[in-house]
Specification:
The structure holds two protein chains of two kinds. Chain A is mainly alpha-helical. Helices cover about 70% and strands about 0% of the residues of chain A. The two termini of chain B are about 40 Å apart. The complex binds zinc ion.
């Protein structure tokens, strides 16, 4: 092996290359793709549904769907928004189903499900208590937002998708992303402030 | 509750500003506006702080073993299904063949009854598994088209 070949072997392979290999039937490439994306796919599903069971279900489903359609997938496209689109659509199905079953809001403040899935802050001594508290409050505030606000906010402020990617996942024109996102951010801030006011601090 | 900007200013530009998604001209407009609009200034500061917190929020996710329990590729899944089908058809064929032979041979009616009873029992079990698998195939939610 030459030095160049060794360097190429050591360098991380990008998603496009992995998709191409997976399309040629390389099982290892499939597994690597799944390993790479399943965490963020799961977390997104959790953020959208507020339920760990649903999140696991949705994320496994999303990965299976991705692989079952892999041959038709354009390997020059980014993988993550594509997976996120599946997750988002499945989450919408779940919202719809829940709405027909019971009239109460999907997630209300303090309801279980939206409070316990953040990693225990005491496990990481480098996180100061104040920002940990802020994160928890924001997470609870997120739970009271409407679905359409929550999804755009989560895509941008938890997963850092670009405006173009958000438009792609949500199926909306790029030009409307900014105003929708801004509305969601304001709503989150308001929900957060309201909560803080309610707790007297 | 937070106050809102009273002027005729497109507030959503603030989010674009925060995300570095504005044209130079718009970014300049925002900067000028922020200099003398305290409510927008506060909003930008809040949004920045919130984004910093959300972007660094750690989440738990399932352990690796939990993921590995599920099949990952279509290749292995269809091979698995095909394997079952072949096995079932083979099993039914072999039993049928053996039954036919035994039936034709010289035997008492008791021997025939035992053979036939046992054989058809096994065949029924195989058949039920086959029906089950076909049903699963039909209702398998992973086969749906997305969207
Ligand atoms: Zn203003």
């Amino acid at each position: 092996m030459t030095a160049n070949e060794a360097a190429a072997a050591a360098a991380p392979v990008d998603d496009h290359e992995l998709v191409r290999r997976a399309q040629h039937g390389e099982t290892e490439a499939c597994e690597e793709l799944a390993r790479r994306h399943r965490r963020s796919v799961f977390v997104l599903a959790l953020q959208l549904t507020g339920s760990q069971d649903d999140a696991l279900d949705i994320s496994q489903d999303a990965l299976l769907r991705f692989f079952s359609k892999l041959n038709r997938f354009d390997s020059t496209r980014p993988v993550r928004p594509w997976l996120f689109t599946i997750v988002r659509n499945r989450a919408r199905d779940i919202w719809r189903r829940r709405k027909t079953r019971r009239a109460k809001p999907l997630i209300s403040d303090g309801e279980e499900g939206f409070s316990y899935d953040i990693v225990d802050p005491t496990a990481d001594p480098h996180q100061d208590l104040e920002s940990t508290e802020l994160r928890h409050r924001l997470w609870r505030a997120l739970g009271v937002l409407s679905e359409s606000k929550r999804e755009i906010l989560v895509l941008r402020d938890y997963h850092d998708l670009s405006y173009v990617e958000m438009a792609d996942v949500l199926g909306i024109p790029t030009g409307t992303v900014m105003s929708r996102l801004h509305g969601a951010r304001k709503a989150l801030r308001d929900a957060y402030l309201e909560q803080q006011g309610g707790q007297g601090g | 509750m937070a106050e809102t900007c009273s002027r005729s200013f497109d507030e959503s530009l603030l989010s674009g500003y925060l995300d570095d998604a504005l044209t130079q001209g718009d970014a300049q407009r925002v900067r000028i506006h922020l200099e003398d609009c305290s409510s927008c200034h506060t909003l930008v500061v809040d949004m920045k702080r919130i984004r910093k917190a959300t972007m660094t929020t750690p989440f738990t996710s399932p352990a690796d073993e939990q993921w590995d329990e599920r099949p990952q590729g279509t290749g292995s899944r269809s091979a698995f299904t095909l394997g079952w089908l072949v096995l079932i058809i083979w099993g039914v064929g072999v039993i049928g063949f053996a039954l036919g032979h035994a039936w034709a041979g010289p035997q008492t009616w008791i021997e025939r009854l035992i053979l036939f009873g046992g054989g058809s029992g096994i065949a029924l079990v195989f058949l039920s598994v086959l029906i089950d698998r076909l049903k699963n195939r039909k209702t398998d939610r992973y086969r749906e088209v997305e969207k």
